[in-house]
């Protein structure tokens, strides 16, 4: 049984404020293979790493990222909401975030609202494109990525495409499953077609992790890294 690749969802978001440099460093400390992060564009066209459309939940500011200038965003505290020890953490510019990743951890860039070609070029300039991949919940961004930057590896969701065959037809590189659509047969079909398999789960039920491992999923997009590794180690020792 091969150990799964660990994708740290929004960085080590249980130990540090999500999508910050502290969360990125935390993911590396946890031994994650990949960091997942979200990208949005400011009013003056600067790319930032942040999940929500607004800064309200994860900073001391208010307003939509698209309505704020980079100067305004750079002044925000993105750490105190999580814990006083993270006061002063900023909303990272994508350039700074990628510079911190380079040579340390691979990247999964979820594009909330940004030009995929710009993201691709930033990764390529740092020698990170070959190990990176992307996804967006925006259908227009997914289509634009496939058309404009075909060398940027793309992930699709099983809940969007509905079948392994459709993922193949879309030239997907990675197929992500959720609890409601994960089966060993689908995982095997994807793997036999050369598509990497991934499972997203932001909960902490060991039984869910065990099921994903038994289905043969290759990559785990998760928050509970340490718990997953414990479950994985138990199952590996049971079959040794």
Structure description:
The chain has 240 residues and is α/β, with parallel strands linked by helices. The protein has a single domain (5-41, 95-239), classed as Alpha-Beta Barrel (TIM Barrel). Strands 1, 2, 3, 4, 5, 6, 7, 8 and 9 form a nine-stranded mixed β-sheet that branches. The longest helix has 15 residues, at 225-239. It has helices at residues 21-29, 70-74, 94-101, 116-125, 139-148, 158-161, 164-169, 184-192, 206-215, 225-239; strands spanning 5-9, 34-41, 47-49, 106-113, 133-135, 155-157, 174-177, 196-201, 219-222. The mean pLDDT is 97. It contains ten helices and nine strands. Helices cover 36% and strands 18% of the residues. α4 (116-125) links the parallel β4 and β5.
